[in-house]
Specification:
The chain is mainly α. 76% of the residues lie in helices and 0% in strands. It is elongated and about 75 Å long.
């Protein structure tokens, strides 16, 4: 599994299960825990959750043990990935058991899960805590977990911390782990995640291209493939490469929906919805938006950017869908970070649609300022295009021209054709 030979890993786990006696419940839990991880990495998401639950159930009634701590940690990991409401509770339970039985793997695994789940719920991750987890995992020889802590921080800090601060934490962690390369099971995912969460919003597209080229040469698991398709699709869309975008969206959309994970579905929609606007496919735009709203269910993760979604709906003139999306964001408990920026932008676009220029300017200026503080140069430029329209509607032509020139100074050197 560490070498990313997931089919072989699952075959061996199958063989082990045939040899386990009814009394070997701890060994069965170990096998099921590893199966949940291998299934998730290889794109067998439903089986990953079932195996994680079964690992915990296998130990029911037995005394606390390292096997129980690990089973609880794996369950919390899958629950976190699927944004299940019980994920934080599962992680805390796993941490407590891991500390009582002295299992370092289960403790660092569950701490990463808890940090990640709290961030999606609006609690900013602590860079110092992340550095501590990386160090403790490396000291215990749990290098996959150390690298996972870095990757999850890169995702979890988005919308909370400036991009340069996220990069500093990431770079320091990579230096700490420099003696041991990332395992092939997650190495490509680590690199693509950094490109997605730091390089794209930071308008560093040539660096993102280099990451994609390197990852494409090395091969990748299903989870990394989803992130790879998202980054590739975003770049192709923005550069006006219609056929490439179409092909990437056709592969990306069903995979993301099959995962059942918000962290796959929302980024996919940030590529697919603008593409449906550009290609004139209103039926698919509406269908995917309905699917997205049902999936989000008024629980938008704080750390996932959704500005391209609301901008696509506004561009398409789908104001009823935009209003419903704004309401879904607005009623998300403790809406924060990237989700809050998307809500503010949606409110500004709705105001622009109903000719309330003053409200549109106020909301879009607020959304733009939030991105400016975070260093999201590309996202800021996109928002400023909308702000310029609002300023023009408010009769502030001079300011509108200044804002539009500022946006163009970012977008034109990138070769951006479709600013979403």
């Amino acid at each position: 599994m560490t070498e990313a030979f997931f089919h072989d890993a699952l075959e061996r786990l199958d063989a082990v299960e045939t040899l386990i006696g009814a009394e070997d419940r701890e060994l069965r839990a170990d096998v099921l825990g590893w199966r949940s991880r291998a299934c998730w990495l290889s794109g067998r998401w439903d089986e990953a959750l079932a195996s994680a639950d079964a690992a915990v159930a296998a130990l029911s009634g037995l005394p606390e043990s390292p096997q129980l701590a690990r089973a609880l940690a794996r369950r919390s990991q899958i629950a976190m990935l699927q944004q299940r409401p019980e994920a934080s509770r599962y992680a805390r339970e796993a941490i407590e058991v891991a500390r009582r039985v002295g299992d370092s793997f289960a403790e660092v695994n569950a701490r990463i899960n808890l940090l990640t789940q709290l961030a999606t719920s609006g609690v900013a991750p602590d860079p110092d805590e992340t550095a501590q987890i990386v160090d403790e995992a490396a000291t215990a020889g749990e290098y996959e977990e150390a690298y996972r802590a870095l990757t999850n921080f890169t995702w979890s800090a988005s919308g909370f911390l400036p991009l340069d601060r996220i990069e500093d934490v990431y770079a320091a962690g990579r230096r700490r782990l420099a003696d041991v390369p990332p395992p092939k099971s997650i190495g490509p995912y680590i690199d693509v995640s950094f490109a997605f969460r730091v390089l794209l919003p930071g308008a560093r597209w040539e660096e993102a291209d280099a990451v994609l080229a390197e990852v494409a040469r090395s091969g990748m698991a299903a989870t990394a493939r989803l992130a790879f398709l998202t980054v590739s699709g975003a770049l192709a869309l923005r550069r006006g490469q219609a056929e490439s975008t179409r092909q990437l969206v056709e592969e990306l959309q069903p995979l993301a929906l099959a995962s059942g994970e918000q962290q796959r579905i929302i980024p996919m929609a940030c590529v697919a919805l603008p593409w449906f606007v550009i290609s004139g496919d209103r039926e698919r735009l509406r269908s995917l938006t309905e699917n997205l709203l049902a999936s989000a269910d008024r629980r938008w993760p704080a750390v996932l950017e959704a500005v391209p979604i609301v901008r696509a709906l506004a561009t398409a003139g789908e104001m009823e869908l935009l209003e419903r999306t704004a309401e879904s964001l607005r009623t998300t408990p403790d809406v924060a970070a990237s989700a809050q920026t998307a809500l503010i932008a949606a409110e500004g676009l709705l105001a622009l649609g109903r000719a309330d220029a003053a409200q549109a300017v106020e909301r879009l200026e607020t959304a733009s300022e939030r991105e400016r503080e975070l260093g999201g140069r590309y996202t800021l430029a996109c928002l400023e295009l909308d702000l310029a329209r609002a300023l023009e509607a408010a009769g502030e032509t001079g300011r509108a021209q200044e804002v539009r020139r500022r946006a163009a100074s970012v977008l034109e050197p990138l070769g951006c054709v479709n600013p979403y």
